Amino acid sequence: MKSLPEHVKSLDPPSAARSAAHSAAHSESRPEDHSEPRADPRRWLVLAVASAAQFLAVLDVSAINVAFPVIGEDFSSASAAGLSWVLNAYTIVLAALLIPAGRLADVLGRRRSFLIGLTVFGLASVGCGLAPGLGWLVAARVAQGVGAAVLVPTSLSLALPAFPAAERATAVGVWTAISAVAASAGPVLGGLLAASDWRWVFLINVPVVLAALAAGVRLLPRPAPAARRSWDPPGTLLVFVAVGALTTAVVEAGDWGRTSPATLGVLAAGIVATALGVRHVRRVPEPVVDPALFRTRGFTAATLGLFCYFLAYSAMLLAASVLCSDIWGWSVQRSGLALAPWPGTVLVVSSLAGRVVRAIGERGAATLGALCFTAAPLWWLTSVNGEPRYAAAVLPGLVLAGVGTALCQSVMFAAAGRLPEDRISLGSGVLMVSRQGATALGVAVLVALGGGAHRLGLGTLRAGWVFAAVTAALALVACLTFPRREPSARASGV
Fold first, then answer.
1. Where in 297-417 does DSSP place strands (E)?
2. What is the rounded end-to-end Cα distance, in angstroms, of the chain?
3. Sign of the CA dihedral 269, 275, 278, 280?
4. Which helix (H) or strand (E) holds 284?
5. What is the dihedral of CA 462, 463, 468, 473, to 10 degrees?
6. pTM (predicted TM-score)
7. Which segments in the chain show pLDDT lower than 70?
8. Cα gap 89→129, rounded to integer Å
């Protein structure tokens, strides 16, 4: 069994802002179009459907990590390496399929893809809850990853077009806050359910999926059919292999050994597939990842900024959790509650994000958020010691991190909203790959800083906070390169 706290091995942060992709910048990218789309009277219900799906995808990660030790007791004959795939299969498949699934959604239609993804996720949850053995459970977790990969790039891109520009930042804030609450509630809810039976951690998804499907069929808009486009099977395969192999190497390096032949071989395969993929997309007329995405204003900066941001985020979240559970000896449930002010602050600040963006612009809001986010690990570096001084030493950093999350993520994910209508889901998938890969890598870096120790000590956590401060500062640099908006454009909302 793994020695680090399992509830933080596969972090899926309040990344809810991921699909802010379809957000405010949409009007900014087309300044010549001054017409304002009519607000859909059902827009908040549509957002609720999208938010419910995202809530499940986030909750399932954080809750299963807490239930993992109980699953291990139920399958006591399985090896630790085999059990680890209950956690890692979802993470790897999700990362590997985000870009192909985003492209598929743009080709087949976001509404159809969303409903398919939700159905697959629900059926896979049933499979997990009824799994008679470890192999069945891992296979069902793979299927859950497939469903989530389809949901993630499509869900909010269906909802946000129903909102007028002035309300989109508020809608993104709601989305961010709901995902943050899911990430925070996961450890507590997972612990409560696992105390009865770990299978309920999966089966509790079913009624929510059914309700979301029923509402989605009635409420989700039916976009006009997109122009027919080729699928690019070779490029899709290369993307799948590249992202899947690189993620596998990062996730499994702790078990396989960072210099083991297995780790180095999978890493090499990922690098080769990446190089071949870059060569491929430059040569075919309709590649799975159009290089023109990165010529869209602000998209490259957002992709790099998100990568740096989530490197910091995952290391900070793991370090804060280890501090409470290992250094201070708190229970998993108490540690989860101790981290709740982070998503709680996201919940409050996200409701004000639209006003902030309208007042100081996207670049200003993202920069302010990145400054607060960088300040959080610096606060912990100067305040935390071996004594459990939560209110004075930890809480201020959690609040700073929450402010940064609410302001920074929304603007960075909004970059996909500048893309053409038939590239929005694909752009969201690219941004999500940046997030997912950085999340896994940030955890791996913090574990590596521990030098292979079974438990991370306070010295390792301090090194992790230095790493987080540096990478958050790099995200700040990316925010400073975002396009500057003119006051007239800013006044129209986000």
1. none
2. 47
3. negative
4. none
5. 110
6. 0.82
7. 1-39, 165-166, 168-169, 173, 176, 184, 223-230, 416-417, 421, 452-454, 484-494
8. 16
Burial class (CB in 10 A: 0-12, 13-18, 19+), 279: exposed
332 near 344, Cβ under 8 Å?
no
Identify residue 444 by its one-letter amino acid code.
Answer: A
Query: Which pair of structure tokens corresponds to residue 133?
Result: 């053995």
C-alpha 395/C-alpha 379 separation (Å) is: 10
Type of residue numbered 318: L
Joined together, the tokens standing for residue 71 give: 């699953």
Helices and strands per DSSP (H, E), number in the chain: 18, 0
What pLDDT, in 10s, does the model give residues 308-342? 999 999 899 889 888 988 889 888 778 878 888 98
* Phi, psi (deg, nearest 5) at residue 175: -60, -45
pLDDT digits (tens, 9 = 90+) for 78-92: 777 778 888 888 888
Token duo for residue 400? 């700073």
Burial class, 452, CB count within 10 angstroms (exposed 0-12 / middle 13-18 / buried 19+): exposed
What amino acid occupies position 338?
A
Helix (H, G, I), strand (E, B) or coil at 5: coil
38 conformational bin, left if phi > 0, alpha if psi -120 to 50, beta if neither? beta
Helix axis angle for 110-129 and 134-159, nearest 10°, is 150
